[in-house]
Design brief:
5 domains, 782 residues, alpha+beta
Length: 782
Amino acid sequence: MNWFGSLIPRYVLRAALPYFAFTWILLSVIMFVQQSARYADIFFSANLPTGLIWQLSFALIPSVAAFTCPMAVLVGVIIGLAKMQGDSELIALRAAGVGNSQILLPILFLGLILSGFALLINWKGVPLAAQIARKVGLEAALLKLESPVEPGVFNTEIWGYTVYVKSGNPTSGAWENIFIFNEDKPTGVMRLITSKNGRIDTNQEDSELVLEEAFVTTLNTSETVAAAAPVPNVHERVKNLRFVVQTRRGQIIERLSKTEETPDELGLTELAAYARNRQGKERTEAEILWQRRIVLSVTPIFFALLGASLILRFSRGGRGFGFFLALLILIGYYLLALLGEQLARSERIGVLAGSLLPVAATLVLIVWFNLSQRFIAAGGNFKFWTRFREFGTQMYARAKSFGVYGRRGFPNLASGLLDFDIVFNLLKYFALSMGFLTATYLIFTAFELWKFAAAAPDGFSILGKYLLYLLPFIYIQIAPSCLMIATLATFVIKSRQNEVVTWTAAGRSVYRLLLPCFLLMLAAGLFNWQIQERIAPQTNRVQDSLRTELRSSAGGTVGNAGNTAEAKEIKFWTAAKNRIYSYALNVNQTGRDAARDLYVFEFEPTGERLKSLIRAEEAVWRNGEIELRGAARQTVWTNDQRVLNSEVTAREGILAEDFNPFRQIYTKPNHLSARETAEKLEIANSASEKRIYAVALEKKYATIVLPFVITLFTAPFALSLSRKGKVVTIGCAVAVWLVFTGVSNGFEQFGLNGYVAPLVAVWSPLILFTIVGFFLISRLKT
């Protein structure tokens, strides 16, 4: 019999495909955000052309799609068949003489098609995407080197020099109020260069900063060195000074022109040849990469069969149970994959055996589910799941009795009971989707960093801490999407079970049905705001440092002790009005209001010449004042170009400053709370920095209303009382959500590039889709 042309296979496929498509899109968007964080300096750069950003966006899609396709197959098959199981459709099929093999056949066909697609992506798409990503990174670096100095930004990467220009025109390369600092600690010599005007001249290899009417000052900073080999304090005026900045443009151009590719950029055939020509760890890593691509290509077949075989062994269950099973299977499968790779790296087993470890476990489960007759008796279930459901039923019954009989003064209202039921289901599906997407996010991140953890001392401990501190960032990223899933799942199920029809037939409005959902979304927005403001900034700083430590330790460049020692010597720079502050962190003081090794450069009102320099061992900012502590010296430039040095008295050791300059050590927006972002925005001198912080600040404020807005335009699709299938309505809701995501990201890029105001860039999509949501709700049959 031609089963692929018959009704039953098409019906089975139609049951699984919508959930597969929905899950694939959702996972791909979430993983795309995760991958975008690796290239945040490109995506959030206001000075790079949008063409490079679009190229990088397209380059991230193949690797994300290859990884999420197997997951989506498993979730789609499990939830689709679990729905048929819960609706007793599988029982009806068996009663009509349809066997399990006939139900598995279309699922197998789906797995074969998707495995072929995954093989094509891993063979051609992933290597091509890696090549594009590398070239985009080099081109972005090359474009940045066209003008290595940006107004309002301290450049500390130019051969021991710190270069700062207060204002200028990035297009023409003309700068104003230039400050250049260099200090040689061993010789005790400090050089300061200031100029009113300057420009950038660029050649093939280097850039040259040409200063007009520059003032050059040479100072002694070490009294011991000065006594042994005195170097006079010199302050001179130079008519035309040319300052060479070595930018390594030639090296980048050479790398762009080379055709030699890394293993990530090789196809399967080329990668196999590459592995054969290598030895040791390099060969092992290449073989692991080759095997990983092959396993990811065939995983859709095994996941499709595993999901179908598992559900067919149960006589009852639902979508929530299917979601729970999919989560357990995914975690177990990818943990076995990571274990196999680690065993192969340690040479305890071969690379092939390590790669086949999760596949072998999956095959054993498939055979067991299909051949074992004693696995689960008719009507049985997992004991844990049975007890969990019984506990939930008991709690629900108690709450129902509590609400209906009006204990403790509660009114006897059916609507109150329904409100509780809606909130309970929203929270349940939110927890399920949050757990699933968080696990997926962590698995993808672990796959990316596992080789660094294996090569670094205490690498697995660092990786574990990194994943732990990554959780708040993940929550903030995926919470709105999870709330959307929870809304769709809750109201779609109630619509299918005719609860919405019953509610409206009793004379109740659909708007009243949505009230607890909207109130919960507003509460969720406030909760997300608290996570974003109180927890995420600290954890994001820690997880970024752990990621850097993991990569640098694996590369053998810096050990743990080296990292700590080097971090203490890092100098931070802050500009404010006519002052520039240079300082290091004071590890002996708590908080971020203290500094050590402080330099305060004070300029004349015109910003052309230095007026004074104050050096202090320690300093503390408190209540609008900077208090100098320890030994402090002041250098003053007089009108006749003499340099005078003196000790700073107690009265002179108090400097008035409106803002805290010692809290500027963190510059990434996700390292800052809204208040700290506003402070950075206020003191930022660079136009691009101002746009970045302004957009970030508005996005932080939008966190409160984002869940409400997303629910506003997705809930009407779930509550539609039309005769259209729920698959169509869910598809429309997901499509609108994708449009909202795309429009929001597009407007954000417009804001970063200065095409629209930051307020417009962030709030315009929210207002637009709020109007769309109200329009859709107004069209509901109440």
